């Protein structure tokens, strides 16, 4: 039995989701383009911010409110504040290390209280069990995949590796610039 | 109407200010470092009785008076204190000006009847100042010059029109003349004001500075003299003093609410909005706890201000209780009245509140927005500006695909002008699967940029079998390969 893509994407609102893998930033950028209202993008000072020029195909960089904090605790605290206030459409937090169940649950509660969706960009295997869904994203490797002759026909493999309310699955998707949305190319094998 | 001026002189302002804060019984003096030694700046009457005087070195003074207590002088605080007295003096008349470092002028024209006449007014001033621990000498006359002379040399009231008869017998220094002029006149046998007045004006003007006649005319009212009242500072600060100390958050917030409402009414009347607020709690043990709030947008909405203060207030340790709360607006910006917009206004407000909340956690300068910059250099094509002081950029140009993450170029081992088929990057062995390029970007020769020292760059988008999509560049002028970005 296969899980329909539309039942898990777009991401369920007022919940905390996690994404990891090489394509995580693209996933976050696409999610940011799909919500209404400002997007709060929180990261710590240790790595450069997301490049706004790279965001342009997916979402308007002018909607981003970039928050830089000194450490991971600041990222989590700022994310909780931003989620609770309910002013943003999406809160993206780039997290450098593993987070515990307490932190994950707090973010989940804050997302519910503020009716805001949270998306945590995490390193591989660093998520918390409190997340609603967790995705692993990467470019589609190997020969046989369609040629990337245009910049907007990049293929990604999006694997749902944790789902609180359903089964797991994975899809190969591409970004369609004309309709400004994600299109499932094929149901990949699990 | 005849002008009536009061001159107030505080002969021991500095010493008495210091003694008010911490009284002592012993002879007391303030010291200041002047001409290579500690000297007496101001002193108490008991010290003066012991034979000390201003300007004496401290070593010298101690030999006269071994039990002398001294503290360093603080002229800035003295000046501030004089300003406070000036503000207090507006209870007698609206027109109060500073006079040097230790005096005030009060223009009481038409306001003396409020205190029951001139003599009761002076008595009232004197009693109240004495109660505050200040010695004051008072003079009342038609002109500031004459009042000044009376305050310093013959305390009292000169009835209207009787100027010369009162200040005539006073010495020349009563005219606020510079010392050399006084000495020169005294050498000629001119010792009092009336003697100077009797001299022919032409000869005095020729022999001495113009200042001499000018000061005489000022004292006698022949030449006008203005009193500059203090600028009325609009201070946006309110406070509440409580009969019993409070400590519960709800109580503190309720008291703060009353303050915030009051303050916001005043801000609204002045059409201003606060940008920086400070809420100070004074505990019963006299310790102050201040909570500062930096706002992303100027505002004067009591409810929102309180909601933003909540987090800071929770951290305050109430100790044995709080009995005074003070709310100040430290930075103001003009904020006109505006038409409320039903939906859009609220959305903007909530975003500004969010910026404030985040800003009070990580600093307002760390909440940023992207803004496009006209540059073809990838890492220079945008900048980050503080969100609290900017509006969102509207149109972003889109020219060519750019990576989602740019980092400083990381060298990889490769040769040739075509992307390598295998390379190692960040400890991983990668195999090239597909490439796209090159896109040549030339350095901005008009800018001095060290990272572009290798010259031209040929950018390639490289997809690897392992799934990464990277942004590589080759520098044909100094052959080398680098990774600069990740497409994600």
UniProtKB/TrEMBL annotation, chain A:
SUPFAM superfamilies: P-loop containing nucleoside triphosphate hydrolases. InterPro entries: P-loop_NTPase. It comes from the Bacteria. This is Protein ImuA. It comes from Roseibium aggregatum.
From TrEMBL, chain B:
SUPFAM superfamilies: DNA/RNA polymerases. It catalyses: DNA(n) + a 2'-deoxyribonucleoside 5'-triphosphate = DNA(n+1) + diphosphate. Its cofactor is Mg(2+). Keywords: DNA damage. GO terms for biological process: DNA repair. Poorly processive, error-prone DNA polymerase involved in untargeted mutagenesis. Copies undamaged DNA at stalled replication forks, which arise in vivo from mismatched or misaligned primer ends. These misaligned primers can be extended by PolIV. Exhibits no 3'-5' exonuclease (proofreading) activity. May be involved in translesional synthesis, in conjunction with the beta clamp from PolIII. This is DNA-directed DNA polymerase. It comes from Roseibium aggregatum.
């Amino acid at each position: 039995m296969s899980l329909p893509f539309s039942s898990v994407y777009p991401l369920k609102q007022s919940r905390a989701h996690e994404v990891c893998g090489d394509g995580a930033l693209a996933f976050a950028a696409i999610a940011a383009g799909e919500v209404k209202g400002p997007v709060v993008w929180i990261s710590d000072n240790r790595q450069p911010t997301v490049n706004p020029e790279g965001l342009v195909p997916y979402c308007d960089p002018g909607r981003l409110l970039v928050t830089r904090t000194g450490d991971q605790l600041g990222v989590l605290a700022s994310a909780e504040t931003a989620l609770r206030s309910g002013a943003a459409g999406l809160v993206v937090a780039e997290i450098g290390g593993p987070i515990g169940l307490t932190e994950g649950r707090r973010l989940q509660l804050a997302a519910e209280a503020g009716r805001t969706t949270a998306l945590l960009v995490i390193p591989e295997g660093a998520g918390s069990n409190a997340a609603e869904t967790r995705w692993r994203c990467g470019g589609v490797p190997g020969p046989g995949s369609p040629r990337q002759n245009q910049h907007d026909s990049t293929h990604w493999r999006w694997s749902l590796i944790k789902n609180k309310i359903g089964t797991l699955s994975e899809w190969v998707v591409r970004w369609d610039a004309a309709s400004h949305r994600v299109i499932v190319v094929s149901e990949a094998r699990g | 109407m005849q002008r009536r001026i009061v001159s107030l002189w505080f002969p021991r302002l500095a010493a008495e200010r210091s003694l008010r804060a911490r009284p002592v019984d012993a002879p007391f003096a303030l010291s200041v470092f002047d001409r290579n030694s500690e000297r007496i700046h101001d002193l108490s009457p008991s010290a003066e009785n012991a034979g000390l005087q201003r300007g004496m070195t401290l070593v010298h003074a101690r030999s006269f008076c071994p039990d002398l207590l001294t503290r360093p002088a603080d002229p800035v605080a003295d000046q501030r204190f004089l300003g406070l007295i000036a503000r207090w003096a507006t209870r007698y008349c609206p027109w109060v000006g500073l006079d040097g470092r230790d005096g005030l002028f009060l223009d009481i024209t038409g306001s003396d009847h409020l205190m029951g006449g001139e003599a009761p007014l002076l008595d009232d001033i004197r009693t109240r100042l004495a109660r505050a621990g200040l010695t004051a000498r008072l003079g009342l006359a038609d002109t500031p010059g004459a009042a000044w002379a009376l305050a310093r040399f013959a305390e009292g009231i000169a009835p209207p029109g009787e100027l010369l008869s009162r200040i005539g017998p006073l010495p020349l220094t009563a005219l606020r003349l510079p010392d050399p002029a006084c000495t020169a006149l005294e050498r000629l046998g001119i010792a009092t004001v009336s003697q100077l007045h009797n001299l022919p004006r032409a000869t005095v003007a020729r022999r001495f500075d113009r200042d001499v006649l000018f000061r005489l005319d000022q004292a006698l009212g022949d030449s006008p003299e203005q009193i500059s009242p203090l600028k009325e500072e609009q201070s946006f600060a309110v406070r509440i003093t409580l009969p019993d100390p409070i400590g519960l958050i709800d109580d503190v917030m309720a008291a703060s609410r009353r303050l915030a409402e009051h303050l916001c009414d005043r801000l609204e009347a002045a059409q201003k909005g606060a940008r920086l607020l400070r809420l100070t709690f004074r505990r019963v043990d006299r310790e102050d706890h201040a909570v500062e709030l930096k706002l992303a947008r100027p505002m004067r909405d009591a409810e929102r201000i309180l909601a933003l203060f909540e987090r800071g207030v929770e951290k305050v340790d109430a100790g044995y209780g709080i009995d005074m709360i003070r709310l100040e607006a430290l930075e103001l910006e003009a904020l006109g009245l505006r038409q409320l917009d039903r939906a859009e206004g609220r959305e903007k407000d909530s975003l500004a509140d969010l910026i404030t909340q985040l800003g009070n956690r990580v600093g307002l300068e760390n909440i940023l927005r992207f803004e496009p910059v006209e540059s073809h250099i990838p890492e220079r094509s945008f900048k980050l500006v503080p969100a609290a002081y900017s509006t969102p950029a509207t149109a972003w140009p889109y020219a060519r695909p750019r990576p989602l993450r740019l980092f400083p170029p990381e060298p990889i081992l490769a040769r040739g002008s075509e992307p390598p088929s295998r390379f190692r990057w960040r400890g991983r062995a990668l195999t090239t699967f597909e490439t796209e390029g090159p896109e040549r970007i030339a350095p901005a020769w008009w800018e001095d940029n060290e990272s572009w020292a290798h010259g031209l760059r040929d950018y390639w988008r490289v997809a690897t079998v392992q799934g990464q999509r990277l942004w590589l560049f080759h520098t044909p002028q100094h052959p080398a390969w680098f990774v600069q970005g990740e497409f994600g």
